[in-house]
Design brief:
The complex is a heterodimer of chains A (about 160) and B (about 400).
Chain A (H helix, E strand, L loop, with lengths): L3 H4 L8 H21 L4 H36 L6 H17 L1 H5 L3 H8 L5 H31 L6
Chain B lengths: L22 H28 L31 H26 L1 H4 L8 H28 L9 H32 L20 H17 L9 H5 L23 H4 L13 E5 L2 E5 L1 H6 L3 E5 L12 E7 H7 L9 E5 L8 E4 L1 H5 L4 E6 L2 E2 L9 E3 L12 E6 L3
Parallel strand pairs in B: 1-10
Antiparallel strand pairs in B: 1-2, 3-4, 4-7, 5-6, 5-10, 7-8, 7-9
Classes of the chains: A mainly alpha (about 160), B alpha+beta (about 400).
């Protein structure tokens, strides 16, 4: 049997300055946190942790998979160099949808219309329009690039 | 094509294959966020002060703030565009920062799964602090983005959630910035090419350069900025704010056509209560109470001024031309001749957080502060507060009470 002290894993302390700074940070966070959690502690805690998990375990994997599908799909048809022309407009359009989802999806239609006196159904159309412009512009740039490449290619190459 | 040796678990460094990840990209994004989030925090605190929460319980949605309100000051009335600028910067910059935040989180995601979970006690505590940092950042951005779109799904009232959440987040943010600053400066200055755990040991073939990725992030920010900022200006600029809540068009045309925060219908205003025979303004002060019909109000000395409407939600109008009775003249009417006190203003409004509001003595005393009866040369419309509304330079929109029915002048 080994002596007891050898079986225990060693815990190192790390930088004491870092520990002090973190202690001060936690003290302030706790002071504000008590007030943040005062009304609906479970709901707020759920949002705080849930948003981090939602981002790290859902949103990030989702757009990573989507991006790999674009790169892989274009690679399969030997057009890997077209990647940015699909990736950029898709990402920008997705970002706009993410930020303005409540308005675009129409989930706040009634409240928005009665509160502001503005039309609520314009956002989906505007988002689709912006998306169309993004993809259209991208397609135009790609077409120009393909054409330029064809002009510069020596006739013997093919 | 499939690599049979490919690591299956995200805790393995080889699982993360993007050749973009590395100390340089993370450091640059971190520096941008350091500047951006500091501005967001300061403009947020300033916006909170603009409500004069210490003046009266009706202005204060966070009565248990304690020392977090240490910096509060009497909100000034000059320059008259102060709140418009501050809040426009706060919301527009916040929305502009979203791609930078997402890119930063993407750049460090392998660390979330890194093993062992802690190398030392200090490292373990730092990782716990990161929960507050990441959770706090997302909490602040998400509550803000939802609130400006009137999507009140968050668990509670926006003001305390966003204010206390900001302090929790900022506590973790400051210490994170301090701990990482030496590394960041080293990486950005390229004094030493650092290879750290973020660099993939089996990188995939690149499809874009690091500068390209940074350019894309900046472009995404620019797109959000360009489709949001316009909601702070009337005319053609507002049309550029394609997806922002108060972008595009104005709700009406003519003198009363400008942007509305809450319509008369939404606020539950009954037209029967605002008619000439029914509506009276009740003004109370040192010498008692005076009741004024709208006609009598219009017979008092009328003054004009150009002031904007600026909302906490980060939209505003250009200056509108208001005409009405000076608040200090109303104070004088009830015995406060030289030194007008604070005023407690009540609305006919049935619902909503700010149906009554308090204004400080300096706001009452400002000659540009009006109980307006007209705007842009016409009677106020019901949506803009007919029969009478408050308009005070540099005050947040909700303190410019509409459908005013009672004003009580006294030290609050």
């Amino acid at each position: 049997m080994l002596p007891r002290r050898l079986t225990r894993p060693r815990i190192t302390l790390g930088s004491p300055v870092q520990l002090l700074l973190l202690a001060a940070s936690f003290a302030l966070a706790a002071y504000a946190g008590v007030r943040l959690l005062a009304d609906d502690w479970f709901g707020v805690a759920l949002w705080f942790v849930g948003l981090a998990l939602l981002h790290d375990l859902v949103l990030l994997p989702l757009y990573t998979i989507a991006d790999r599908a674009i790169v892989g799909g274009l690679g399969a048809v030997r057009r890997r160099e077209w990647t940015p022309y699909v990736r950029v407009p898709a990402a920008l359009s997705g970002l706009l949808l993410l930020v303005w989802f409540p308005l675009i999806s129409g989930r706040v239609d009634r409240r928005y219309r009665t509160a502001t006196g503005l039309q609520a159904d314009v956002f989906l159309a505007r988002w689709l329009l912006v998306t169309a412009v993004l993809f259209g512009g991208s397609a135009l740039l790609l077409a120009l690039r393909v054409r330029r490449a064809a002009q510069h290619r020596p006739p013997a190459a093919r | 094509m499939r690599d049979p040796d490919a690591p299956r678990l995200p805790s393995s460094p080889g699982f993360w294959r993007s050749p973009l990840r590395g100390p340089w990209l993370t450091s640059v994004l971190g520096l941008v966020l350091l500047v951006g989030i500091t501005v967001l925090f300061v403009t947020g605190l300033v916006s909170y002060a603009a409500y004069n929460p210490n003046l009266s319980p009706v202005n204060d949605k966070t009565p248990d703030k304690g020392i977090l309100g240490f910096y509060l000051f009497a909100w000034p009335t000059s320059p008259h565009w102060l709140y418009r600028l501050n809040q426009g910067v706060h919301v527009t910059l916040g929305i502009t920062m979203i791609p930078v935040l997402l890119a930063k989180l993407w750049s460090v995601v392998p660390r979330l799964f890194a093993l062992p979970p802690a190398r030392s006690l200090a490292h373990a505590v730092e990782r716990i602090s990161l929960v507050l940092l990441v959770g706090g950042a997302l909490f602040e951005f998400v509550t803000g983005v939802l609130n400006v779109q009137l999507d009140y799904v968050f668990p509670g009232s926006f003001y305390p959630l966003h204010f206390y959440g900001a302090w929790v987040f900022f506590a973790a943010f400051v210490v994170h910035a301090l701990l990482k600053m030496p590394t960041v400066l080293r990486n950005v200055r390229h004094l030493r090419e650092e290879k750290n755990d973020l660099v993939s040991p089996r990188p995939a073939e690149p499809t874009v350069s690091r500068r390209g990725a940074l350019g894309f992030t900046g472009g995404a920010s620019l797109l959000l900025f360009a489709t949001t900022a316009g909601q702070n200006f009337d005319g053609p600029l507002r049309r550029t704010a394609l997806l922002a809540p108060h972008g595009g068009v104005d709700p009406g045309s003519g003198p009363n056509g400008f942007q509305i925060n809450k319509t008369a219908v939404y606020a539950g205003i009954d037209a029967a209560e605002t008619g000439e025979d029914v509506w009276r303004l009740v003004v109370t002060g040192r010498t008692g109470t005076v009741r004024l019909s709208r006609t009598q109000l219009a017979e008092l000395p009328q003054h004009s001024g150009a002031l904007p409407i600026a909302c906490v939600e980060g939209w505003s109008t250009s200056d509108q031309w208001w005409r009405g009775v000076r608040l200090r003249d109303l104070a004088a009417l009830v015995g406060h001749d030289d030194d007008p006190p604070d005023v407690f203003v009540e609305s006919l409004q049935r619902r909503g957080a700010f149906r009554s509001a308090a204004l400080r003595a300096n706001q009452v005393a400002d000659p540009r502060s009006l109980l307006a009866l007209h705007v842009n040369g016409e009677e106020l419309s019901s949506d803009h507060g007919y029969p009478a509304r408050i308009i005070v330079p540099a005050a947040p929109g909700v303190l410019n009470t509409k459908w005013v029915t009672r004003m009580t002048f006294r030290g609050l």
